[in-house]
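tokens incoming
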């Protein structure tokens, strides 16, 4: 496993493009940029290359974040928005040489969401998107997001995500393990990692409660990382958290990641 820094969360005392060098200075080999769409992709790519870093993950465009939007993939009435936004994500992934896109599922609207129709839409959209991405070498990721932080999110648990991945039936789609979201939505991390570890293609860590440094809080990070290793995971483990103080003072967890 290798350590990555989520630059949308960490080193926020610096402008975004300076965060790449800071991440490298503190021992990271990869970085995430959740929503790079307001930036010049070529300049971000150059900043990563100059720092000797890989950009390992971006998210698909969320839509109007101020209005509470969180993607479109599971929203039957937003097919055109999904396809347009995913096309933008693919273009950015190519420019950034980024091999993974977390596809945001979206939030239900209306009083009584049609869960079955929403999941059917998600499956259909992901089949189209996976086929679109096939030639580029990009892997699509599904990340369950907890409904305390993200009310009415269409994909709240790894169980639902695993079912969707099975239904999509494409080789270039996998599961994103986020320790924070999984713990809030039922915990039971050891059993779930063993059940779904074969699907996991990316991992993110932070503590519960509070989403601070991942080696604090109610979850034993060392045990979780050992379990990930036992189920065969050898990919990136990204710090996606809000440091209680400076980022530099929050990096004790790096000693738990194998070089």
């Amino acid at each position: 496993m290798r350590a990555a820094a989520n630059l949308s969360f960490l080193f926020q005392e610096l402008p975004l493009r300076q965060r790449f060098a800071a991440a490298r200075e503190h021992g990271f080999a990869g970085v995430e940029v959740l929503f790079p769409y307001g930036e010049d992709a070529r300049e971000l790519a150059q900043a990563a290359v100059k720092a000797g870093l890989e950009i390992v993950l971006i998210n698909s465009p969320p839509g109007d974040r101020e209005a509470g939007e969180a993607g479109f993939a599971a929203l039957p009435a937003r097919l055109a928005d999904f396809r347009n936004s995913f096309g933008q994500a693919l273009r950015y992934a190519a420019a950034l040489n980024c091999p993974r896109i977390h596809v945001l599922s979206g939030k239900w609207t209306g009083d009584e969401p049609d869960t079955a129709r929403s999941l059917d839409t998600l499956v259909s959209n992901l089949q189209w998107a996976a086929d679109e991405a096939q030639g580029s070498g990009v892997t699509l990721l599904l990340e369950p997001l907890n409904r305390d932080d993200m009310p009415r999110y269409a994909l709240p648990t790894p169980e639902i995500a695993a079912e969707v991945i099975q239904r999509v039936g494409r080789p270039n789609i996998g599961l994103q393990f986020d320790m924070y979201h999984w713990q809030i939505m039922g915990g039971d991390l050891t059993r779930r990692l063993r059940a779904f570890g074969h699907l996991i293609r990316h991992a993110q860590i932070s503590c519960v409660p509070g989403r601070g440094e991942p080696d604090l809080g109610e979850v034993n990070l060392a045990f979780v990382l050992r379990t990930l290793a036992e189920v065969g995971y050898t990919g990136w483990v990204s710090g996606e958290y809000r440091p209680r103080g400076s980022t530099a003072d929050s990096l004790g967890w790096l000693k738990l990641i194998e070089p």
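note: Strands lie at 2-6, 30-32, 54-59, 100-102, 139-142, 173-178, 200-205, 236-239.
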